[in-house]
Design goal:
The complex is a heterodimer of chains A (220) and B (881).
Chain A lengths: L1 E12 L2 E13 L4 E6 L5 H8 L7 E6 L2 E2 L5 H11 E4 L11 H11 L5 H11 L15 H14 L4 E5 L7 H18 L2 E5 L3 H6 L2 E6 L2 E4 L1
Parallel strand pairs in A: 3-8, 3-9, 6-7, 7-8
Antiparallel strand pairs in A: 1-2, 1-4, 4-5, 9-10
Helix pairs in contact in A: 3-4, 3-5, 4-5, 5-6
Chain B lengths: L23 H17 L4 H33 L6 E5 L5 H9 L3 E13 L4 E9 L9 E4 L7 E3 L7 E5 L2 H5 L6 E4 L2 E11 L15 E5 L3 H4 L8 E8 L3 H14 L9 H4 L1 H38 L2 H9 L4 H38 L13 H26 L20 H18 L2 H35 L2 H12 L1 H35 L7 E6 L1 H14 L3 E15 L19 H5 L1 H9 L13 E5 L8 E5 L10 E5 H7 L6 E6 L2 E12 L11 E3 L10 E6 L7 H9 L4 E4 L1 H39 L1 H13 L4 H37 L9 H28 L2 H8 L1
Parallel strand pairs in B: 3-9, 6-8, 13-18, 15-17
Antiparallel strand pairs in B: 1-10, 2-3, 2-7, 2-10, 4-5, 4-8, 6-9, 7-8, 11-19, 11-20, 12-13, 12-16, 12-19, 14-17, 15-18, 16-17
Classes of the chains: A alpha/beta (220), B alpha+beta (881).
Bound molecules: adenosine-5'-triphosphate and magnesium ion (MG).
Chain lengths: 220, 881
């Protein structure tokens, strides 16, 4: 499903070029659940972003669902993202000016699906927020916001779900509930799940753990 | 699924991809929904408000200006009795009249000539004027049944067989209304007295030879007075409600007669009116320019804020598969919808605004305003679109470039478009707009230079301020410390804010000061007690008698100027060699110079001669002990008390025209004698004050012996005019020229222009207030956030309010100071170059400007941020998410 070949990412900084990822190779199969762990600053988010086609690599390639990202420009990657990728972020990334329902509807609307409202409502009910669909993000708690974000991630029926520390901003109990939700939905939709986390217990529950140290995979 | 392990595009895990194209309907629907959601959440309201304000103020002001300009032209057209006039000393081709009629213009004709009028009791030289039935095309003739009374308006001239006379002809002829008057071989019945005639001031020499006698055009032949070679002035009058028709007709005449005939309008006719109109137009233009500028600033501010708040939005959209092109399309569509809505609402509002103004103006504007054209709405709409394109498009386009990675790393924002590109766009857009709007290089450059210098000045000032504020903060209380560190933190933002504030305050100061200077200038030009009658042809022995007469009747008399006709023969023994230009006023006696008809009329008699090298036209000259009021010495010295004979003072332009230097010896021909005098000074003369003005003034004793008649002026109210009768009876040889109607006409026009100017100032003031508000609001979020944090950290209400007050007040003070500087500099340029005024510093503004800035900005700022301390910090933090 995802195939990473000699992926390198370096960025120019004031002190010269900083190489964040050093020739990373990785394969992830369909429906696999993979946790990426590592110290802060080890390059987890960078790797996730590259895998999801949110950024272009310096060298190497990512094949996402058989499509080479290196050969694509941002426009083509956007099309790819829209069709096969879903996201959950540490900081939720809900749009403050939209209600919970509208936030979930947005990606469905983007696909031109006329049943956006019905689908979004069903998903929000599924994540237990059926009563709160007209609320704005700032009227919801962190956990509730993350549940909206999860509903939004699954709204597009994506083949691959990327989650960057989805519980990072939540307390342990809430975090656990969120993880349950992600795993449940993951099973339901049969998605491939790539999860960045600091939480060792969470990582243990995943089928596979990839450990990053200073931009290199040391343990798979 | 098995791992293919190969690099094949056909591996088993391939997921087929659509082309990602979204149907137009999907995108439009999405964009419209986004627009609606943004609107609902208040995100768009400020931008929309700014746009509406731009359209409303520009279209409102343009509408008002458009109609007012037409009205002013119409009102002043009364002075011509027509919109356009064609005049000549020879008979005019009839085809011109036919062509005008064919084009649907209204036409009339007049014929002026001097003639003797006889009665059974006496005779008198009169300025006769025959008019066709349609005369006057504009304005009214004021007639009465008795001389020297108020009279009533009428829109036609005398019928065949009738004559109308001016009041002062009656005592001289010894007749009354109903008696017979003879002109040439024809007998007429005197049926009405002419109190005022619309184009009385517009005539030439033949119209000033004596009191007016008006008759019907069809009677001219009967009199048999007008023959080949007699001095006659032919005039064709034209008018139309369509300006375009007149312009086309004018072009036709130019074309058909190869420039031999030239149509004249009121601007050619009266320098005072033309200047007042020009200044008013410039002012109105300036006013609407500032409105555009301010609206543009408001749009720039709000658009920038809007797009900043949309970076996350775009990043999410991109994460979910929106391409840049689609993002661009979505935001363009949002803008288009916004623009259309703003143009509709703004135009309606603008129409309302101009109606409110008209209501307020009804008392002052006596004429019916012509209906508005559609153009102002187009101007308003175009302004909105251009503002939007130059101010809002760049930041919104920058959104396209927002990298989707922003969802993972907040610090990443658009990098491809430099942060300053939007400003460059905005600046370019503004300059373009201002130029397009004014088509005036001076105005455009003043605005650009003023704003640019403010920007430079501010960068320097803020640098100084911020490096010194640390030291102040050390010593001062904690509120100061807080305010200063806040000011430092928001340094870039604050500089921008001060810039916006100072541009706004500067615009208001410029308009305000210009307004009061213009009005003061006009009041000085024609003060309430301007003498409104000229007495001429007074002989030396009569002077004392006339003075006595005025004393006796309680009328305010004025100085008597000797008047004598002179011609420059040589300068330093050489023939004068005037610069190419014929003296501009030679044959078009303007109101200004027409008022001292005596001083000019000789010149008008021989217009051709001005062009002949070495032989200049005659001028009426005078001698005086004291320099006339309103004259100023520019070079040399005025002779003092002990004036020696043999000196002469020359008007500056005349001197320049002839290339005269101080100390030159000039030879004059006066009364067939040759007089030589040395040039001792150059003077500036205020030609527009409707008082006797002279190009050439001799020192006493130089030409006194040559015999002169005297000229004086007097102020007579309407009810005093009956005294003229007695005056003329007692001194039958003197000539009275009544310019009271003319002065009143001009004062009236100036009053209307004044109120127009006042209103535009108020309108722009409102625009400015809105911009200030938008600017304060634009930085509100951050202040809210910071202060909420301060409060969670234990900052008290008082501390925060005081620090906010200090911060805003400092910004306001700085803005006020810079605005004052900018305003004075711009005014210098504007007044000297565009308005033809003398610039002088406005000292009080140097205090009032900074004070005003401090008070207004502190007030607005505190009012807007009061919420910071009254809402609980938690709510503020949540609200800002
Ligand atoms: N655009 C960039 N410019 C400069 N440095 C960058 C950029 N992107 C990432 N980095 C640096 O690369 C390193 C890896 O960043 P990354 O966000 O991938 O770490 P991470 O493993 O996700 O850390 P954390 O667990 O704290 O989220 C960091 O040191 C970061 O500062
Ligand atoms: Mg990270």
């Amino acid at each position: 499903m995802i195939e990473i070949r000699a992926l390198t990412k370096s960025v120019p900084t004031s002190e010269g070029t900083l190489t964040i990822l050093k020739s990373v190779n990785l394969e992830i199969a369909e429906s696999e659940i993979v946790a990426i762990v590592g110290a802060s600053g080890s390059g987890k988010s960078t790797l996730l972003g590259l895998m999801a086609g949110l950024d272009a690599a310096t060298s190497g390639d990512v094949l996402l669902g058989g499509h080479s990202l290196a050969a694509m420009d941002e426009e083509q990657r956007a099309v790819l993202r829209g069709q096969i990728v879903g996201f959950v972020f540490q900081s939720f990334q809900l749009l403050p000016s939209l209600t919970a329902l509208e936030n979930v509807m947005l990606p469905i609307e983007l696909k031109g699906d006329s049943e956006a409202r019905a689908k979004a409502t069903a998903l929000l009910e599924r994540v237990g927020l059926g009563e709160r669909i007209t609320h704005y993000p700032n009227q919801l708690s962190g956990g509730e916001q993350q549940r909206v974000a999860i509903a939004r991630a699954f709204a597009t029926e994506a083949k691959i779900l990327f989650a960057d520390e989805p519980t990072g901003n939540l307390d342990t109990a809430t975090g656990a509930k969120i993880i349950e939700l992600i795993f449940d939905l993951n099973k339901e939709f049969a998605t491939t799940l790539v999860l960045v986390t600091h939480d060792e217990r969470l990582a243990q529950r995943c089928g596979r753990i990839v450990r990053l140290v200073a931009g290199e995979i040391v343990n798979d | 699924m098995t791992n293919s392990g190969t690099y094949s595009a056909h591996s088993a895990i391939d997921i087929p991809l659509g082309d990602g194209r979204k149907s137009l309907g999907t995108l439009l629907g999405l964009a419209t929904r986004l627009l609606w959601r943004d609107w609902r959440s208040g995100e768009l309201r400020l931008l929309f408000l700014a746009l509406v304000m731009a359209v409303a103020s520009v279209s409102g002001i343009a509408l008002f200006t458009d109609r007012l300009e037409k009205a002013l032209l119409l009102e002043s057209a009364n002075m011509l009795a027509a919109d356009r006039v064609l005049g000549s000393g020879r008979a005019l081709p009839e085809e011109i009249l036919d062509e005008a009629k064919g084009r649907g213009l209204r036409t009339a004709r007049t014929l002026s000539f001097t003639s003797m009028a006889f009665s059974d009791a006496g005779n008198m030289l009169v300025s006769a004027k025959a008019v066709s039935a349609a005369y006057p095309l504009r304005g009214d003739i004021i007639i009465a049944d008795a001389p020297f009374v108020r009279g009533t308006p009428i829109q036609r001239g005398p019928q065949p067989g009738e004559v109308w006379l001016e009041s002062r002809a009656l005592p001289a002829l010894g007749i009354d209304v109903g008696d017979s008057v003879y002109v040439g071989e024809a007998e007429f019945e005197l049926t009405k007295i002419i109190i005022a005639e619309p184009d009385r001031s517009g005539g030439g020499m033949v119209d000033n030879a004596g009191p007016r006698l008006m008759l019907h055009m069809d009677d001219v032949e009967r009199t048999n007075v007008v023959q080949m070679g007699s001095r006659v002035s032919y005039r064709f009058l034209f008018s139309s409600e369509e300006l375009l028709q007149l312009d086309e007709f004018e072009a036709w005449i130019d074309d058909a007669y190869e420039g031999e005939y030239r149509l004249r309008d009121v601007r050619d006719e009266s320098e005072e009116v033309s200047e007042a109109l020009n200044r008013a137009e410039s002012f109105l233009l300036l006013g609407s320019l500032f409105a555009v500028l301010l609206a543009g600033v408001a749009i720039a501010l709000t658009a920038k804020r809007y797009s900043e708040r949309h970076y996350d939005y775009v990043a999410i959209l991109k994460t979910f598969g929106c391409t840049s092109a689609q993002i661009g399309f979505i935001y363009l569509w949002i803008q288009a919808l916004l623009a259309v809505a703003a143009v509709i609402v703004g135009s309606l509002l603008g129409w309302g605004v101009h109606h409110v103004i008209l209501r307020a103006l009804q008392a002052v504007i006596s004429v019916d305003l012509p209906s508005a054209s559609f153009e102002p709405f187009i101007v308003g709409a175009l302004t909105a679109v251009i503002c939007l394109l130059s101010f809002a498009l760049p930041p919104l386009l920058a959104l396209r470039e927002t990298p989707p990675l922003r969802v993972l790393r907040k610090d990443i924002s658009q990098q491809r478009i430099g942060a300053n590109i939007p400003y460059l766009f905005g600046v370019g857009g503004t300059i373009g707009l201002v130029y397009w709007y004014s088509e005036d290089f001076v105005l455009t450059s003043v605005l650009v230079i003023a704003v640019a210098s403010i920007a430079i000045l501010l960068s320097g000032l803020s640098f100084l301020l911020l490096s010194s504020s640390g030291a102040i903060g050390m010593r001062a209380g904690s509120a100061w410390k807080l305010a200063m560190s806040a000011a430092r933190r928001r340094r870039k933002q604050n500089v921008l804010q001060v810039m916006v504030f100072s541009v706004t305050i500067m615009s208001l100061l410029i308009l305000g000061l210009l307004r009061s200077d213009l009005i003061a200038d006009w009041q000085a030009q024609l003060p309430e007690n301007t003498p409104n009658h000229f007495l001429m042809n007074i002989s030396q022995p009569q002077v004392a008698g006339i003075e006595e007469f005025f004393d006796e009747k309680g009328v305010q008399g004025n100085a008597f100027y000797p008047l004598i006709s002179a011609r420059v023969l040589s300068i330093n023994g050489e023939l004068p060699d005037p610069q190419d230009e014929l003296e501009a006023d030679e044959d078009n006696s303007t109101v200004a110079r027409g008022s001292d008809t005596g001083a000019e009329e000789e010149g008008a008699e021989e217009p051709e001669e001005g062009q002949v090298r070495g032989r200049l036209s005659r001028r009426q000259v005078t001698w005086a002990e004291e320099i006339p009021a309103d004259n100023r010495i520019l070079a040399g010295e005025w002779w003092g008390e002990s004036a020696a004979a043999g000196f002469v003072s020359i008007e500056e332009d005349y001197a320049e025209w002839l290339g005269i230097e101080l100390g030159d010896s000039i030879e004059f021909e006066i009364s067939a004698q040759t007089i030589t005098a040395e040039v001792s000074s150059f003077r500036s003369v205020r030609w527009d004050n409707m008082q006797p003005n002279f190009y050439i003034i001799f020192s006493p004793g130089t030409i006194d012996h040559l015999g002169a008649t005297f000229l004086s002026t007097v102020l007579m109210e309407r009810e005093q005019k009956i005294l003229l009768n007695e005056l003329v009876q007692r001194f039958p040889t003197i000539v009275v020229i009544e310019i009271d109607a003319l002065i009143e006409q001009i004062q009236n026009i100036i009053a209307q222009v004044t109120s127009a100017i006042e209103l535009i100032s108020v309108l722009v003031l409102i625009c400015g207030a809105l911009v200030l508000l938008a600017c304060v609001n634009a930085t509100l979020d951050e202040r809210f956030y910071e202060n909420a944090i301060l409060r969670t950290l234990g900052g008290g209400k008082r501390l925060i309010m005081t620090s906010l007050l200090i911060e805003f007040a400092s910004i306001g003070f700085l803005a006020g100071l810079v605005a004052t500087l900018g305003a004075e500099a711009s005014l210098y340029y504007l007044q000297e170059k565009l308005f033809g005024q003398d610039f002088h510093l406005h000292y009080w503004v140097w205090v009032a400007g900074p004070l005003l800035g401090t008070l207004v900005i502190a007030g607005l700022g505190i009012n807007s941020t009061r919420g910071v301390v009254s809402i609980s910090p938690l709510n503020v933090l949540r609200r800002l998410n």
